[in-house]
Amino acid sequence: MRVLVLNPEYPPLGGGAANATAYLLRELSKHKNISVDLVTASVDGERTEQLSDNITLHFLDIKKEGSLHYYTNRQLLRYRQLALLKSRQLHTQKPFDLVHAFFGIPSGVIAKQLHIPYIVSLRGSDVPYYNPRFRLADRLFFKHLSRYVWKHANYVVANSQQLADLAGRTSPNLKIPVIRNGVDITEFTPAAEEPSTDTFNILCVSRLVGRKGIDRLIEAVATISKTHPQVQLSLAGDGNIKNQLEHQAKQLNVSDRVKFLGAIDHATLPNLYQQSHLFVLPSRNEGMSNTALEALASGLPLILTDTGGAAELTQGNGKTVPIDDQIALVEAIKEIMVDTTLRQSLRTSSRKKSEQYAWSAMADSYINLYELVVSPPR
């Protein structure tokens, strides 16, 4: 079986979808009856790499500049043009059986143009009305384009039930199964002991973009620090509002309490989680957060906002708070910060819960879909 995977994101470019693709390919490399070509974007010119005997990576030069975690419209358009040409070239050389498109736009659009059976994996920002910033564009254009792309796909899947429900607003009659992200529980493990509480370390690993709600987290730290001076926040990630967030921290007089770590190499992330007491991701929109799953496997209590797969990730091991509810966010952080017994219980529950998620399970679910596409039941 020959599979073409399309995703403009692949580490170090991108965020959760990039990591999900990398882990999926790692799992697929174990299935020698499946041959995969990934067509993705590059930060340093066009090239081809062999990940394994059956996995080939094709990197396209989209003239990527600026943040590793943010794409301009021009860069996405360039990816679409170059990826379509590259995909056609590869298909002519040796035909593919199906296309797996991460993101309905632009990857699903490319897949439709190739006239090959295809699967679309919805990730979040590619679903109409997911991001309020694009509400007008979604209503006028992207809703119709998404509906067209999804209608012609063999399968459309989402990474959380809430995302599937949101996509259902655009295509009410479309059945959208859920294939959740996974986590490597051998790579991400709890610290042998919780770090010293001389400082209370809150960690957020995220793109620094508006929909992640990092501004609310900085406000919460400013409020909490007035009565709990040991609180510290580490922000791992980069994005188009980094300067704005740094200015906010300065204006709130918490520049010494908020560390902007920038884009972190994946290999150093496990240690970063182990040095923390609590993971907080106050997103305004989210699918199934890879970094929340990593925090889960690292044994950290979670505080997430009520969006995406938050509810299923915080049962018995953290708290879900309403979106943009500053008071609820402050109270949730304080409750976990001051109660050592509660925190230890949540740590244990997080690690246990993480064992339900594995990249191998995600890969098996996709392989089942691949087989249904190639050999549909009669």
TrEMBL record:
One of its GO terms (molecular function) is glycosyltransferase activity. Residues 192-352 form the Glycosyl transferase family domain. It comes from the Bacteria. Residues 15-186 form the Glycosyltransferase subfamily 4-like N-terminal domain. PANTHER family: SULFOQUINOVOSYL TRANSFERASE SQD2. This is Glycosyltransferase family 4 protein. It comes from Candidatus Kerfeldbacteria bacterium CG15_BIG_FIL_POST_REV_8_21_14_020_45_12.
